[in-house]
Amino acid sequence: xxxxxxxxxxxxxxxxxxxxxxxxxxxxxxxxxxxxxxxxxxxxxxxxxxxxxx
Length: 54
Prior knowledge:
The chain is an all-alpha fold and 54 residues long. The protein has helices at residues 2-6, 34-52.
């Protein structure tokens, strides 16, 4: 992101909440795959809106 911003671009960071069995870098880490659909939907809608601004 810093590299993009250094070159005049815009960047963002998104976090989508989910239930986790354990934290990152843990052998029991397992994301709830159902929550991925919500994140994909949000990113898809953002892409559509940004494309409409062109």
